[in-house]
Write a structure and sequence with these properties.
heterodimer; A: 573 residues; alpha/beta; ABC transporter transmembrane region fold; Rossmann fold; 3 domains; four-stranded antiparallel β-sheet; 12 strands; 11% strand; B: 576 residues; 2 domains; elongated
Chain lengths: 573, 576
Amino acid sequence: MGTLASFLRKYTRECILAPLFKLFEALLELFVPLVVASIVDDAIPQGDRGLIMQMVLILFALAAAGLIVSFTAQYFSAKAAACFARDAKKALFAHIQTFSLADCDRTGLATLINRMTGDMNQVQSGVNMTLRLLLRSPFVVFGAALMAFTVDVRAALIFVVAIPLLSLIVYVLLRISVPRFRTVQSHSDGLLAQTRENYKGARVIRAFSLQDREVASFTKANGKLLTSQLRAGRISVLTNPMTSFVVNTAIIAIIYYGGLRVDTGTLSQGSVVALFNYMSQILVELIKLASLIQTITKALASARRVEAVFDSTSSMAGGSVSEIDDSCDTAIEFRNVSFSYNDSSENVLTDISFSLRKGQTLGIIGATGSGKSTLAALIARLYDVKSGEVDIFGRDVRDYSLSFLHSNVTLALQKARLFKGTIRENMLLANPDAGQEDIMAALKDACAYDFVMQKGLDSPVEAGGRNFSGGQRQRLSIARSLVHGGRILILDDSFSALDYMTDSAVRTALAKRDLTKVIISQRTSSILNADKIILLENGCISAMGTHEELLATSSIYQDIYYTQFEKEEKADV
Amino acid sequence: MYKQTIKRCLSYLSNYRLEFFLSVMMAFIYVIASLYIPLLAGRAIDSLIGPGSVDFVSLSADAVRIFITAIVCFVSQYVLSRLNNRMTYRIARDVRNDAFRKIEVLPFSYLDSNRQGDIVSRIINDVEQLSDGLLLGFSQFFSASLTIIVTIYYLFSLDFIIALVVILVSPLSFLVAKFIASRTHRFFKSTAQMRSLQTDLTDEFITSSPEVICYNLQSACQDKFNSVNEKWADSSLKGTFYSSLVNPATRAVNSIVYACAALCGSFLVLAGRLTVGGLVSALSYANQYTKPFNEITGVVTELQNALVCASRVFALLDEKEIVDEGKEELPEGALSVEFRGVCFSYTPGQNLIRNFSLKIGKGQHVAIAGPTGAGKSTIINLLMRYYEIDEGDILIDGISIKDIKLSSLRRSFGSVLQDSFIKSASVKDNITMGRDFSDEEVIEACKKAHVHNMIMRLEDGYDTVLDDDEGLLSAGERQLIAIARCMIDLPDLLILDEATSNIDTRTEGLIQDSFNRMMEGRTSFVVAHRLSTIRNADVILVMKDGNIVEAGKHDELLKKNGFYSELYRSQFASVS
């Protein structure tokens, strides 16, 4: 629990003051019997009405003081809990952001989201409740035991047996139920994942009339959650009955043992009454504690899950280099690069070697699934190579600091996702220093200027950019990558939803910019003018060269070209 | 303020009447037993008269009684808690099932205009909070109320006046609780809202992690998150603090009750109406009597939070559903489609499609053309009845689309949609999509879609579990899977919405052959970016800015020299 606890340390003051004021409150409550005693013992026998009034006024004063003290306690505990949760969430979010894509794939998005929200809620209320009751309950329990010793040492031994037994019960039950509550949370992850999926895939799910099936499978998973909740609950609800039973048994012991001692004249009846009262006080406090323990159990289970996220560090460490060797003429170089998404699966790329000079354009073409996007991802170091080396400006990508690398290698992704906000915000996100002219120029070059201007630069973008068509999203994504800047621009099939005219217009505009470009495309027309074209086939380089060279040597390239060229010829009729 | 919400919660409870009844009974037994123990203990202590005169017979008898009562206490409390767990967790399950089912029946006008994270937060987090609140309510509310009733009985048996004083003053604590609660409500509400906004942001940023990494957006995302986080922490702090005032406030009221009882009791003693012992008992009962009030008001704030969350879930449940009033089943075989005076708009007042009419014969091919962003998918939204038309009618095989069972309508369409959604399930399940096909048929379809080799390269072949969020598949590969999904079955109507936009042209050419064979004799709608599809289409719908501006055959439209011919020239004719 190291990391989470460290967030609480910042609120040490609150964490001490809250229980302390709670303690004050308990102390104030202890005065009440004394006041009543003085009414009964002094005021009433003397018939002193003035004294009665005085004592009652003291009772009122105690009530008022208790109110103020506990308000203060509640404030400190609420503050500590809320601020702790805020800091922890902030750090958790920052930590998740250091994860590489491989880390995210491995962990799963749903569980990350759930840990950030659901689990953190549980931890927060755990902290809040703990601060309110944690100090008070042991104080009352041990205080009562201590008082028992002042009454009678031998009888107090019953307390010495009962209290460790009570602690043991609480501890054992906690040990059993915490893992069970963790299972509950992981079932809840599953439900979250399915809910997200059904929201996202609603069109396809309905197209195949899968609603009933989905509902059935959700119901099943939900049923499993229920079973796990009941399984966890079965143990944790034992706390209260078991501790009460122990206390009640102790009460019997006190009375019976007291009876023996009273009979021999070594203990008074009044002392037995006092011992009984102290044991009863413990009981009342334990009942309060029981509901706290439920909350704590859940909170601990959730805290462990949050800790697990903090504990898993990014599998990708950035280097320290943050400058580019301008004398190096080679922009990109792959040396015998092989890659697979996980160790056990087959290679997605095998033994890729090529180099590209500064300012040149590389075209990558190949069948769907031949590894084009993976190659692009490796240049931007979204994933690390399995073997071999990727060099950017003469240096291994792993030597550069990640943020420096990404500000110099810009990847416009195949499935362009825009952020909720406005178009301007989306552009500025990519480069906060971009001026109006930069944005306008980028929009123009990406052929997005016209439709953006129709709506305005400040028109809203919905989450994922779903209020734009695929082609518009792609153009906005290209514009965004231009605003971002950088020396190497990788366009991962960024023209697929554009018509040929727009495609060619964008490329012409891009040619005017001083960039080393990697263009991945299905269309030969998009890469025709590239300085070098790589034809990928099942993760290997099948052919490499200029358009003319490939056309002359590679039968697959010919195939690709002529299927499209034929089509284009027809169009010219 | 919460009446409706409470009613809804109770209606969920009505399925568990037996548990509820048992729970109340158990609470009753538990309260009686737990209040009986002090009484027995008192009696037992009375047996300890003094040295040499302890009545061991009655002491032993009372000890045994206490032990038996303690066992009754243990059993009843455990059963009570188990029952309460069962009720609340089941109610939460029921609410969650209903909320999830809702996603499947909400119109796209709702789904498309709401935030995913918000809905997810309602179904996961809010239901969780609701069940926490209910659990607390059940476990404390009844036992507390019963304790009050039992102590009132004892109080009256002691003295009439003192009982009245206690009863009259204590409702004050409810007033105080209500006063604070009504002010806390908005903080609970804003906390829940902020929480769902946070879920939404986390969802958006984590889903977009490739963008975040590529564009160094970490600090920008963090800033955005922080600002929501601050707001959330602020309202959470206020909500927790104000709601936690209820308990001390009612406790203060209780202390006042206690003081009043002491005052009144003392004077009664002086007046000779009450003994000192009676006063001590009365005061201890006054004390006991007020404790459950504390618990109840404490629970009230928890319940309040639960109710705020519940009302968010119920608001989702109350959203208007799609009504599937259709009863007609579409026959098998080629079907005709007719648009009759169709009007449609996504937002009221902004008419997109106005009074559009068109007859499409059996087996005819419709191409939908238009520049990027012209709203070509709108027609598909209407045909699949993802959106309801505002006016007019769409007739399929002469039957109004509203009279056709939704499942029958959608079964008749084979579709490859623009966004190739991948379920988190095995490759095989992603292709059968719940339909009954053998492994051979799946492989056959994948071969036709030219995705078989790619699948065989995956870790577990056809059993590899895919995930929509994962980076394992490229857009093209996803699209191929969507195509295999469509090709495995021969539907009567075919919709291809830029079905091959992410696929390399060589594969596309091969797939197109399969599509062409599929389309033979079937009515089809193709959002086209290929010239050949357009030229061979029986009707071309030309769209611009969301409207259908022209409709006709290729040659007719060219002759018209309108938008289509302009589009045709710019889009297809000048690639060289």
